[in-house]
Specification:
This protein has about 425 residues and is mainly alpha-helical. The protein has a domain at about 85-120 and about 280-435. The chain is built from 19 helices and no strands. It has helices at about 1-20, 25-40, 45, 60-65, 70-85, 90-110, 125-150, 165-170, 175-190, 200-220, 225-240, 245-270, 280-300, 310, 320-330, 345-375, 380-400, 405-420, 425-430. Helix 9 runs antiparallel to helix 17 (about 380-400) and helix 11 packs antiparallel against helix 17. The longest helix is centred in the last third of the chain and has 33 residues, at about 345-375. It is globular and about 60 Å long. This is Oligosaccharide repeat unit polymerase. InterPro entries: O_anti_polymase. Keywords: Membrane, Transmembrane, Transmembrane helix. Pfam families: O_anti_polymase (PF01901).
Length: about 425
């Protein structure tokens, strides 16, 4: 494993190094550096509220220490259910209670048994992390240009073009999301070591957010935009570079983006009229998704229907994807894609038993990640936690069904397990060093 990791990082470091030597990238970074210096020394920065602005908010212990704890997933799930006016069946209520309790056990109780005596984690080279993030960002940008060229226009300006996008070309664009987490981790590390100042790291986070969201907005997608905003906010929160009031503003902007993009896209597609309440698009999504979950609860039972086939359908070689498979189960048509919420896939595959195990496992992944960043304050683990927590929050509606998201969780699980293993005597017996 260490050999594979070393080979990959060596290749990516070489690519990163060669790209930075190109005239095009030298010009781009000089321009960005120019604007960075101008912004930091500008008069407008002095007018911006200081970090102490509205400091009384930070006196609340929950906000200052636990705002983005693993339990936020349950809070968001509860709010999502409240948005819907669709009645929840008794059968589903029992399943939700099982899921919430299992998640609480996995995220808040089980992690207490780890990292008691030793607190060693695997340390990754930040040069490697930056190179990986940089290369992912370049790949995403290249496929963005290719996607735009393939449909002959910008989908946000002409929504019908969004349906002409080919997944094989548009999916790599979403690599910009983990790229933001990795590049942000590298910037946080530089700030922590005193290589860059407070204003400079904030500017880089802002620039990273603007460029990456601009790419996704142009394609007309909503979910990756919220993912990027959440990652930036969570990393800024744990990296101590974003104030609480700024987090509140960012959440409000994200909420407005969900409503605004959905509303204007629906107008362009004649799904709503100008007289329709903009909140209707959000409420209707919640209603429909809860309705789907109600139906799944009726047909899945205690041990499920597909026994792993749904999650396996996320593999790109599958004839139909997982959301289409759910559409086939409920609507008898493979052309329909349905979002099943966070517990839907667990329900369909393994029933109520699967919800209990799946939510406990998800809770443990998020919970152990949270414990690691509280103990280590390591920027890389802050970025990893932000990435996984973000998709758990977004998965409240969409479910964890996309192959790239499952890949992020698989990588996270391997890293966390290695960290746990490193704090046992078994680690030394198996290998002198897995990662140097």
């Amino acid at each position: 494993m260490s050999g594979i990791y070393s080979l990959i990082t060596k290749i990516l470091r070489n690519i990163h190094s060669n790209l930075r030597k190109m005239v095009l990238f030298k010009v781009i970074f000089k321009i960005l550096s120019f604007f960075e210096d101008k912004w930091i020394n500008s008069f407008f920065v002095s007018l911006y509220p200081k970090p102490s602005f509205l400091s009384f908010i930070n006196k609340n212990k929950i906000i200052s220490h636990y705002l983005f704890s693993p339990l936020i997933v349950i809070v968001v799930f509860a709010i999502f259910l409240l948005l819907s006016i669709e009645p929840i069946s008794l059968n589903l209520e029992i399943t939700l209670a099982i899921g919430f309790i299992s998640y609480f056990i996995g995220s808040m109780i089980i992690p207490r048994f780890f990292f008691k005596k030793k607190k060693n984690i695997i340390n990754f080279s930040m040069k490697d992390i930056y190179s990986i993030g940089f290369c992912l960002f370049i790949i995403a940008t290249l496929f963005f240009v290719i996607s735009i060229a393939s449909v002959g226009g910008i989908p946000i300006l002409k929504p019908s073009l969004r349906y002409a996008l080919k997944p094989i070309l548009s999916m790599p664009v979403f690599l910009v999301v983990p790229a933001v987490a990795l590049l942000g981790a590298a910037y946080l590390n530089d700030y922590k070591k005193g290589k860059i100042g407070f204003s400079r790291v904030r500017f880089r986070f802002l620039l990273l957010m603007l460029i990456s969201t601009g790419i996704i907005v142009s394609l007309g997608y909503r979910t990756p935009i919220i993912a990027i905003l959440l990652i930036i906010v969570i990393m800024g929160y744990y990296g101590k570079i974003i104030s609480t009031w700024e987090i509140i503003v960012a959440v409000a902007i994200g909420f407005a983006a969900i409503i605004g993009i959905g509303y204007f896209r629906s107008l362009a597609e004649y799904m709503v009229t100008k007289n329709t309440n903009p909140l209707y698009t959000l409420q209707s999504r919640a209603d429909f998704t809860v309705h789907v979950l109600n139906l799944l609860s009726y047909i899945s039972g205690d041990f499920g229907l597909l026994h792993g086939k749904l999650i396996a359908s996320a593999i790109p070689t599958s004839e139909i994807g997982p959301r289409m498979l759910i559409g086939k189960l409920l609507a008898w048509r493979t052309q329909v894609t349905l979002t099943p919420t966070l517990i839907g896939p667990m329900f369909v595959d393994f029933g109520r038993f699967g919800v209990a195990i799946g939510m406990c496992l998800l809770g443990f992944i998020i919970g152990i990640g949270h414990k690691i960043i509280r103990l280590s304050k390591n920027p890389f683990y802050i970025g990893l936690y932000a990435l996984l927590l973000t998709y758990a929050i977004l998965g409240v509606e969409t479910g964890l069904l996309d192959i790239q998201v499952l890949g992020y969780y698989a990588i996270g699980v391997v890293i966390y397990l290695l960290c746990i293993l490193k704090n046992t005597s078994l680690y030394d017996k198996l290998s002198k060093s897995i990662f140097s």
